[in-house]
Design goal:
Helix 3 (117-125) packs parallel to helix 4 (144-151) and helix 9 (272-286) packs across helix 11 (423-439). This protein has helices at 81-89, 93-100, 117-125, 144-151, 157-160, 179-185, 222-237, 250-265, 272-286, 330-345, 423-439, and strands spanning 2-5, 15-21, 28-29, 34-39, 44-48, 53-58, 65-67, 71-76, 186-187, 191-192, 240-248, 292-294, 299-301, 307-309, 311-313, 316-318, 321-322, 359-362, 382-386, 390-398, 401-417. The strands form six sheets. Strands 11, 14, 17, 18, 19, 20 and 21 form a seven-stranded mixed sheet that branches. The protein is globular, with a radius of gyration of 27 Å. The longest helix has 17 residues, at 423-439. The protein has 445 residues and is an alpha+beta fold.
């Protein structure tokens, strides 16, 4: 009997959620055949059979979260194909039902409820026992709001039976928060505690949604929910500041026109994004504090420049990263961008592709509009967002002579974490990126 465990799905991933079984108990499978699909907070992954045989027993149901190394199923490698077919036809109905219908309250192999690592961390910080929390998310997943509701103080019996005829005296203004409240709100590990979804925080309450004819309620996809949680967390933990530079791309555009057809024949698309990534990597090496992450009372200058590149896919936005981008040539970065984009759109990026990013570049595409300030991808301290490229009149200086010319121009917007990045550093970094692009002095081999 061969045990099929939950694989290591990435350097920072400790568990995965079974989203779909492709096989059933009794099915005969070949080596490397897909057995099931597993989701993590970073990516979706297929688990394949380590050997040929019959699926003897499925140990993890759809919707269940399994820790790395936990058993998913067992294969009987001694069973023949004929016996496998007979066993598959006689597979009991309960097994099929279990493979289609997730349990009402999914739990991990150790009895833990379905929750992301960030939610587990929030529960620990607020002394909330997750096994006692009723999850309201997809497939019973515990959401940040569930944790906050469980952490909220419950009314005492005396308060619950207080006479409604006695009203508290009016107050002119809300009192200053007590030290306990501030300690709860300002969490050193994760920043400001988010308001409870649908309820708000303190005196402000979000009005309830009242359905109207023609309205359409669209449930969040798993990726959209993860993205939403990340964006809310990032805005609360990092004081965002944005600065914008106008970039004359005339020299870079001429260089691109000289080489793009030649590289295209070699299967390498030479896009403006490539040049921006190359300039960004060089500026990061010259400004190492922009390639960093914040810790408790300190920060780390990261050795590796792992440049994240946002890719729009049918399932939503993902940000795979070019590992050790500062060791690659312009051709190497162009190839890496194309490879990541193709695999992301095909749903083939791995958890490792999406982890370890030290800085990100966001390219909104041809319909990107003038410019926009992107939200920082945690735990980075900055993100650079491209604007649309438009031909505009610019002042061209040649010695003491000045003239007006029509050049391709783009706005670059840098969002940075003001906890550790000051305006002088951010402006110097962005100026350098713009300077490299305006000069167009890149080596294209």
């Amino acid at each position: 009997m061969i045990d099929v465990p939950m694989p290591q799905l990435g350097e920072s991933v400790a568990e995965g959620t079974v989203t779909k079984w492709v096989v059933r108990e009794g099915d005969h499978v070949e080596r490397e055949q897909v057995l099931l699909e597993v989701a993590t907070d970073k990516a979706d992954t297929e688990v394949r059979a380590p050997a040929s045989g019959r699926v003897a027993k499925i140990l993890a149901q759809e919707g269940q979260t399994i820790a790395k190394g936990g058993l998913l199923c067992q294969l009987d490698e001694t069973a023949g194909a004929a016996a496998s077919a007979a066993a598959s036809a006689a597979a009991p109905a309960p097994a099929a039902a279990a493979a289609v219908t997730p349990p009402a309250a999914p739990a991990s192999s150790g009895g833990a409820p379905l929750a992301s690592p960030s939610v587990r961390k929030m529960a620990r910080e607020h002394d909330v026992e997750l096994t006692r929390v009723q999850g309201t998310g997809d497939q019973g997943r515990v959401t940040p709001g569930d944790v906050m509701r469980a952490a909220a103080p419950q009314p005492t019996p005396a308060a619950a039976h207080a006479s409604p005829a006695i009203a508290p005296p009016p107050i002119a203004a809300p009192p200053a928060p007590a030290p306990q409240e501030l300690a709860a709100l300002l969490n050193a590990g994760s920043g400001f505690v988010p308001p409870i979804p649908g309820l708000g925080y303190g005196a402000y309450k979000v009005p309830p949604y009242a359905p109207k004819p023609g309205d359409q309620v669209v449930p969040f996809s798993r990726r959209r929910r993860i993205t939403a949680d990340h964006m809310v967390y990032s805005k609360q933990v990092s004081p965002h500041v944005a600065t914008v530079a106008e970039v004359d791309l005339h020299a870079t555009a001429r260089l691109r026109d000289q080489h793009k057809d030649r590289l295209k024949k070699e299967g390498i698309p030479l896009t403006f994004l490539t040049f921006i990534c190359v300039a960004t990597v060089q500026a990061l090496r010259e400004h190492p504090d922009m390639n960093a992450r914040v810790l408790e009372g300190s920060y780390v200058r990261l050795r590796d420049v792992n440049l994240g590149v946002a890719v729009d896919t049918p399932g939503g936005l993902v940000v795979p990263s070019i590992k050790s981008a500062d060791t690659l040539s312009l051709r190497g970065i162009a190839t890496a961008i194309d490879d990541l984009a193709q695999r992301a759109k095909a749903g083939k990026v791995t958890a490792d592709d999406l982890s370890g990013t030290s800085f990100s570049v966001s390219n909104p595409g041809l319909k990107g509009n003038l410019f926009g300030a992107a939200i920082i991808s945690q735990p980075n301290v900055g993100i650079l967002r491209m604007g649309e490229i438009k031909k505009r009149p610019v002042v061209v200086t040649n010695g003491e002579d000045e003239s007006i010319a029509i050049h391709p121009v783009m706005y670059l917007a840098l969002s940075y974490d003001h906890r550790m990045v000051d305006g002088a550093l951010a402006n110097s970094f962005l100026w350098r990126v713009a300077d490299l692009l305006s000069r167009g002095e890149f080596e294209v081999r």
